[in-house]
Specification:
alpha/beta, SH3 type barrels, 6-stranded antiparallel barrel, 5-stranded parallel β-sheet, 7 helices
């Protein structure tokens, strides 16, 4: 059986915990984290809730306190806004200046929730950390090592956002919602008398603000310079408002007349250019990823995998070749649209997450030669 079709039996990871251990829960006050806490308590664990204040503008603390009080959960609110600014927000802004389209949630999870929160909870006696992510844990059939896997409710699976967790982080983690659907979680929350305050699906620190407006408020005007739209051959097609306003695959807002719709195919911040092409020219067969964290290290230099390049995209079959350091090259079986530098690439074998890194470069389909391996 090809490695990319490997499947394992996955669960929340609760079964490996000893009775009575103290478990810290990352607590937003939404139904996912609240039901996670209740499930843990029902299994006989000592549960304590921790709510992180990520930005000075963050609201909802009263609702968080009310939810914890309704569940009789010990709650501590911890201000980590300074660390969040330095490790998540500032890199988010700087990435756009470099022509990248970042995914701050993939950055936040290992840096803030599974590191900073964990250290503070451990200092207070916690032995494990639980979150309301829809993800699962299992054992590698070859080594017996603990691995991350997709949640049973595949439509809600959030393992992609956890793709850069280390093996050490997984060893202390629990995912109580591994086997539940969102519908069941909402029903459980309603039975507990909790309001349906679901976790946000947007970038949390924007607080409803358009990300471009957020960037404009953070950047000096000298870093947002108008420049040229160019085609792949370098011919000037028009003027753009600044590289930060665009992302690979974008069609709307270009305001460029033409016989067929134009799409952004690449960003060139060094020359302050936005490369424009046809829909076909947004497709790529290959990418290079870097800063990869392998929670299930590959056993060979070249292997088959399912590679997911966006949070709402289905993983695509590909061949992967390890490069020096923490890099890898990917050749997809079929070309993928809008392979976007700055986004995360998550590597799966069946329902098992092997690891993840950041997309550094994409090759435009039929425009650049591919080396087979």
């Amino acid at each position: 059986m090809p490695a990319k079709n490997m499947e394992i039996a996955a669960s929340s990871g609760i079964e490996r915990l000893k009775p009575g251990v103290r478990v810290a829960v990352a607590f937003s006050g939404g139904v996912d984290s609240a039901v996670s806490a209740v499930i843990l308590r029902e299994h006989g664990f000592e549960v304590r809730a921790y709510h992180l204040v990520l930005t000075e503008r963050q609201t909802g603390r009263d609702e968080v306190r009310a939810a914890a009080e309704a569940l009789s959960l010990p709650l501590e609110i911890i201000d980590v806004s300074s660390e969040f600014e330095g490790q998540v927000v500032r890199p988010f802004v700087e990435a756009y200046v470099r022509g990248l389209t970042p995914n701050p949630c993939v950055a936040c999870n290992p840096a803030i929730k599974f590191s900073l929160l964990w250290e503070k909870a451990r200092e207070r006696g916690a032995e494990y950390l639980a979150t309301g992510h829809y993800a699962a844990l299992g054992r590698s059939p070859e080594t017996g090592d603990l691995v991350l896997a997709r949640a049973r409710h595949i439509q809600k699976d959030q393992s992609y956002f956890l793709c850069r967790l280390t093996r050490t982080m997984l060893a202390r983690s629990v995912f109580p919602l591994a086997g539940l659907s969102k519908t069941r979680v909402k029903r459980r929350a309603a039975a507990l008398g909790l309001k349906d305050r679901s976790e946000s699906q947007e970038i949390c620190f924007l607080l409803g603000e358009n990300y471009r407006d957020f960037l404009l408020s953070r950047l000096e005007s000298s870093k947002i310079r108008p420049g040229n739209f160019v085609d792949p051959a370098g011919r000037v097609l028009g003027r753009h408002r600044g590289v930060i306003h665009y992302t690979v695959g974008q069609r709307r807002g270009l305001n460029l007349p033409g016989p067929t719709p134009y799409y952004v195919t690449a960003l060139d911040p060094d020359n302050n250019q936005v490369v424009i092409g046809t829909k076909a020219e947004t497709y790529s067969r290959s990418l290079r990823a870097g800063r990869i964290v392998w929670s299930l290290p590959p056993k060979t230099e070249v292997f088959s995998a399912l590679v997911q390049i966006r949070s709402r995209q289905r993983p695509a079959p590909a061949r992967v070749r390890l490069l020096s350091g923490d890099q890898a090259e990917v050749i997809f079986d079929q070309a993928q649209t809008s392979v976007t530098p700055g986004q995360a690439a998550a590597f799966y074998q069946g329902n098992v997450l092997m690891g993840g890194g950041w997309i550094e470069k994409a090759l435009i389909f039929d425009k650049q030669p591919l080396e087979s391996f």
